[in-house]
Amino acid sequence: MSLRDIEVKLLRALVAIVDEGGFACAARSLHVTQPTISQQIQRLESIVQAPLFERTRRPLLLTPVGREVLAHARRVILLNNEVLGRISALSSQDSLSLGCSVHFADGLRTMLSELATERPQLKCSIATGPSASLADQVGRDELEAAILLGIETPRCEMLGRLRLAWYGQAPLLPAEPVPVALVSERSALSRRIIETLAEHNVPWRSAPWCSDPLAVRASVRAGLAYTALAANVHHGDLSLLPVPPGVLCPEPEPVPVYLAFSPSAGEQVVTAARAAARAALRDVPLGPP
Questions:
Q1: What's 8-91's CATH class?
Q2: Which of 101, 188, 194, 285 is deepest in the core (most CB within 10 A)?
Q3: Phi, psi of 88 (to 5 degrees)
Q4: The predicted structure's pLDDT at residue 2
Q5: Residue 1: what pLDDT?
Q6: Average pLDDT, the chain
Q7: CATH fold group of domain 164-235
Q8: Which residue ranges of the chain lie beneath pLDDT 50?
Q9: Is the distance from CB of 273 to CB of 138 less than 8 angstroms?
């Protein structure tokens, strides 16, 4: 079966004839000549291989095929307009201030590379840090949007749930609490780790030298503590060793990931931020919202 494409302008001609009540009125509404409208309908009929109008009837009536094509034509035109509107919004958004949780900083290289290729006109300024701090900046309109782990804001959408796994190789001594590397009490990931250990009655102690995610990873690599991180983080960092099953309790439940928007962020910002977030989280093990 040979493929046949229908140009949107042919569908517009059909819709205009029906909505305006005839070929002449359709030509005026589309700012073309009546012969042009007639030629476009003839072309459309040749593509669908059937007449669209009852030529012997007055007033002008659609054939059954014509009614079917008209219904689809309206949908195609709406979709065409939506696509062009979206692209226009993307093109007109030339700057974006975006926060990104440090837990997703590994995806910034992919995000910036894709944006440079697909949207070279977009000037994207990036701020990384703890999700709670970024959420505060979004709320104060200091950032237009932010990718947050476990922090829900008044204006946000959930992108998925981050699947977690235990990492570490610290010696476990009988009757001694498990050394655990945590960031801070405001960290949603830290709270999820603590809740999981408590739920399974695992005694633990906080590693005092950890104050940020980089220090957490350093302590885990050094064999000084355990922590929970993204379930696939060891694929890009072989020095982070997953904990074998049965050594600790089951892995923590996934943590929600949100894309937050500032109170003043318009539709153009929202569209640009979504595109950036998709690129930044491409390799992150997200489950469904």
A1: mainly alpha
A2: 101
A3: -60, -40
A4: 53
A5: 43
A6: 87
A7: D-Maltodextrin-Binding Protein; domain 2 (3.40.190)
A8: 1
A9: no
Residue with tokens 């007033």: 59
With 0-12 / 13-18 / 19 or more C-beta atoms within 10 angstroms meaning exposed / middle / buried, residue 70 is middle
Whether 164-235 and 94-161+255-287 are alike in CATH topology: the answer is: yes
Residue type, 253: E
Q: What is the DSSP letter of 105?
A: G
Q: Give the residue extent of every domain in the chain.
A: 8-91, 94-161+255-287, 164-235
Phi, psi of 167 (to 5 degrees): -135, 150
**231: its two tokens:** 């379930």
Backbone angles phi, psi at 160, to 5 degrees: 155, -170
Determine how many CB atoms are found less than 10 A away from the CB of residue 83. Answer: 10
Residues 151 and 202: their CA atoms lie apart, in Å, by 26
Quote the Cα angle for 136-183-172, to 5°. Answer: 160
User: b/e map of 161-188 (b: 16 or more CB within 10 Å)?
Assistant: bbbbbbbbbbeeeeeeebbbbbbeeebb
Q: Cα(250)–Cα(266) distance, rounded to whole angstroms? A: 42
Per DSSP, what are the bridge partners of residue 146? 99, 260
Q: Is 240:220 a contact under the CB 8 Å cutoff?
A: yes
Domain 94-161+255-287 matching CATH 3.40.190.10: the answer reads yes
The beta-carbon contacts of 128-131 under 8 Å, at least 24 apart in sequence, are 128/99, 128/100, 128/101, 128/102, 129/99, 129/101, 129/102, 130/101, 130/102, 130/183, 130/184, 130/186, 130/187, 130/212, 131/101, 131/103, 131/187, 131/188
The helix/strand/coil state of 189 is helix
Residue 3 has what pLDDT? 60
